[in-house]
Design a protein that fits this description.
This protein has six helices and seven strands; from the N terminus they run ββββααααβββαα. With 159 residues, it is of the alpha+beta class. It is globular, with a radius of gyration of 16 Å.
Length: 159
């Protein structure tokens, strides 16, 4: 379990498969609404423009995407990704592989888990952290998560 905020439950899904010349393995973050059992993505909760701006300000993204200042949509991240096997910056990954890490003032820290981009880097898993404004209708949910210690900073085992 990575985080629990209201009905939103986040966890790390790790996979391994044999077949072909080499095994395939890796990880992603998954978030579901436990009440409905539906998968949840960041756009279900947060404003897309806030997400785009937060991603554009992340150091990893700045190093991984060309012309980051010209990014205007989530699709632009994948189109402008510097060619590498180390990570997959598709729109689907950027909006769906996430967990709630901690809060700071009226912001929530989001960890986005980015899997490898091709088999040469299979198993690689990169996490980036961004801050997004807590939606007004979820302020109490995040307060409760802090009090109950159900955010990622409290739940994920430290090595």
């Amino acid at each position: 379990m990575n985080s629990i905020v209201d009905n939103y439950v986040s966890y790390t899904y790790s996979y391994y498969s044999e077949g072909g010349a080499h095994p395939t393995y890796g990880s992603i973050f998954c978030t579901i609404n436990a009440a409905t059992e539906d998968t949840v993505n960041l756009l279900d909760i947060f404003n897309e423009n806030d997400l785009i701006e937060a991603l554009k300000n992340d150091e990893f993204i700045k190093e991984s995407v060309s012309n980051v200042e010209e990014i205007e949509s989530l699709e632009d991240f994948q189109r402008n990704t510097i060619n590498t096997c180390a990570y997959n910056l598709s729109k689907d990954i950027l909006i769906s592989s996430f967990s709630f890490h901690h809060t700071r003032d009226s912001l929530v820290a989001i960890r986005i888990g980015i899997p490898y981009g091709c088999q040469a880097d299979r198993g690689k898993f990169t996490q980036i952290g961004i801050y997004l404004p807590i939606p007004a209708h979820m302020k109490n949910d995040f307060k409760q998560a802090v009090l109950k210690k159900t955010l990622m900073k409290d739940l994920v085992l430290k090595k």
